[in-house]
Amino acid sequence: MAKINLRDFYPFYHSDLFIEIPDEVETALLEAERLEKNYIRRRFYNKAHYSLDANDGIEKDILFVPLSPCEICERKMTTEQLQAAIASLPPKQGKRIYAHYILGMNKSDIARIEGVDESAVRDAIARGLKNMEKFLKKD
Predict the structure, then answer these.
(1) Which contacts qualify for 65-74: CB closer than 8 Å, 24 or more apart?
(2) Do 4 and 18 touch, CB atoms closer than 8 A?
(3) Which of 15, 28, 105, 122 has the fewest CB atoms within 10 Å, i.e. is most exposed?
(4) What distance in Å separates the CA atoms of residue 91 and residue 95, rounded to the nearest whole number?
């Protein structure tokens, strides 16, 4: 068991508070602190502390954090679930939800293209979202 001062790790502590923690937790806290210091040092070394409007790509390189394999897998599963939910909808609802949320079209444009009233598109999208919610809760 290690003894740490929470004031060293958490800025909202204004007085010393010592607690005993397992060695694994201490290792994790020290690793996180070391990574934070390395990040600050890298940001300063690459001059990313200057204006982020320079458009020289420094801030993108320093701030870009690649996704972990777990996060990639989670995104893929979420995408597959959403695709299955859209596929489970009636064709008109599925097309309208896809056009609005995936393609970024507004409801009036969808209505104009399909030659229907905008309220029909709004209602179809609302019903489709409710049906998707039921489908996703069922899974």
Answers:
(1) none
(2) yes
(3) 15
(4) 6
